[in-house]
Amino acid sequence: MIVLIPAYKPDNSLIRLTHQLSAHSESIQVLVIDDGSGSEYAPIFTELTLTGATVITHPVNLGKGAAIRTGLNWARIYQPRQVVVTADADGQHLVRDILRVGARTATHADSGKHSLVLGVRTLPDNTAQGSGTVPVRSKVGNALTIGFFTLATGTRLADTQTGLRGFTPQMIEWALNIPGTSTSTNSPCCCGPPVRASTWCRCPL
User: What is the pLDDT of residue 144?
Assistant: First the structure.
């Protein structure tokens, strides 16, 4: 399993998350995309490399969507049989939830499915870094994208803003063909048409 983490000017939460993932299993490949954070943050990315993570650096900030695209393309080239789970760099996603989404995605991959597994928030988890009240803007944005996603796919999701997503190898090619690179949203459909026999799967957290 590859854990793909787009990072822009991260703090020590990213180092802790990487240590925890690496300590859990040697089979987990942590892939961090430094999205133009600058020289001030170089020590953090150097530390990540020393823990065994693979770090790819964008010379300038290109946006989260571009960072995810870079990571998925790396996975397609160098680890084409691995599932990819995206997680945020701020530590809000717990290791147990990342592993849960990864296991669900691997099950779909073993069945040959084109699947995107979404780690859907249910109740607040106060043990996560940065947990607390969800901003009104995020609530409104989530409500709007829920409606759009339902119209576009016929599937209703409780949380379309999640950054915790699992891609089967069969789904990565589709994701890379979605138009555009930079994005400020975590909407999983990104206006791209679903592939034949694709599956949008919810994994409650």
Answer: 46
For the chain, the distance separating the N- and C-terminal CA atoms, rounded to the nearest angstrom, is 19
CA 2 to each of CA 110, 174, 197: distance values in angstroms, whole numbers, following the listed order: 16, 18, 24
The CA distance from 16 to 97, in Å, is: 15
- What's the pLDDT at 126? 47
CA distance 47 to 40: 13
60 CB-contact burial (10 Å; exposed 0-12 / middle 13-18 / buried 19+): exposed
CA pair distance 142, 187, nearest whole angstrom: 8
Burial of residue 153, with CB atoms counted within 10 A of its CB: 0-12 exposed, 13-18 middle, 19 or more buried: middle
Q: Record the pTM.
A: 0.78
**Cβ contact 54:84 at 8 Å:** no
Sign of torsion over alpha carbons 126, 50, 52, 62: positive
* CA–CA dist 102, 117 (Å, integer): 9
Choose among 158, 91, 89: nearest CA to 131.
91
pLDDT value at residue 195? 43
The sheet with strand 198-204 has its strands ordered as 54-58, 29-35, 2-7, 84-86, 165-167, 114-120, 198-204
pLDDT along the chain (205 residues), means of 10: 98 96 92 97 97 96 94 96 96 93 94 87 51 48 46 50 87 80 46 47 63
